[in-house]
Design a protein that fits this description.
This protein has 6 helices and 9 strands, in the order H-E-E-E-E-E-H-E-H-H-E-H-E-E-H. By secondary structure, the protein is α/β, with parallel strands linked by helices. The chain has one domain: Glutaredoxin (3-Layer(aba) Sandwich). The strands form 3 sheets. Strands 7-6-5-8-9 form a 5-stranded mixed β-sheet. The chain has a two-stranded antiparallel ribbon with strand order 1-2. A two-stranded antiparallel sheet has the order 3-4.
Length: 197
């Protein structure tokens, strides 16, 4: 059954590589959806109740995944700077076209934000992802979404139904933009400039 679900997920991602123009324009507001209410240290609901979820206004679901370098990255440990997560795959044409833009923006702003290139390793395999990154000369952080409970949980938490998918978090870990489809460098720069101001 588990193999069937993984194969179904791979098929959905392979078929749904989002084309340019499929993305919502940044700034389009969405209302937070129901989820888990964040409680303060005493276990009481805080005045600023944040719902954990993948929609604009939600506190981004936490994860702890492996990087291509063999380290662990925990999303909640990155608070204090904006975060740009881009979900991608080696076999996705629009992902491959988008990653040079990710690299350019990363080169210009790496001290002011964190980028996590979230490779759908369950589809690509670690060796293919590593070869692609090395051959392309990219040096931004790559996170592996592997066939594990944590990896598949991250895909589910962020409802990754098509790639590329760009998710931008503010410095408090709140989802500010979720953009399905390929983004251009100017779009990424505009969103990040707004988050860094």
């Amino acid at each position: 059954m588990k193999k069937f679900l993984v194969l179904l997920l791979i098929l959905l991602l392979a078929v749904s590589c989002a084309a340019p123009g499929a993305s919502e324009s940044p700034g389009k507001e969405a209302t937070p959806e129901e989820g888990v209410i964040v409680e303060d240290e005493k276990g009481e609901e805080s005045d600023s109740q944040l719902v954990i979820g993948n929609k604009v206004g939600n506190l981004a679901p936490d994860f702890e995944l492996n990087t291509l370098e063999g380290d662990k990255v925990k999303l909640s440990d990155l608070r204090g700077k904006p975060v740009h997560m881009v979900f991608w795959s080696v076999d996705c044409v629009y992902c491959v076209k988008e990653l040079p833009h990710v690299q350019e923006v990363y080169n210009e702003n790496k001290d002011d934000y964190t980028v996590l290139a979230m490779n759908v390793t369950v589809q690509d395999g670690e060796d293919a992802a590593r070869k692609f990154i090395e051959d392309s000369g990219y040096d931004f952080p790559v996170v592996l979404i592997e066939n594990t409970k944590e990896g598949l949980g991250a895909l589910q938490d962020y409802q990754v139904r098509g790639i590329p998918l760009n998710v931008f978090l503010d410095s408090d870990g709140v989802v500010v933009y979720s953009v399905p489809g390929m983004m251009e460098e100017e779009q990424m720069t505009g969103v990040l400039k707004e988050l860094m101001d």
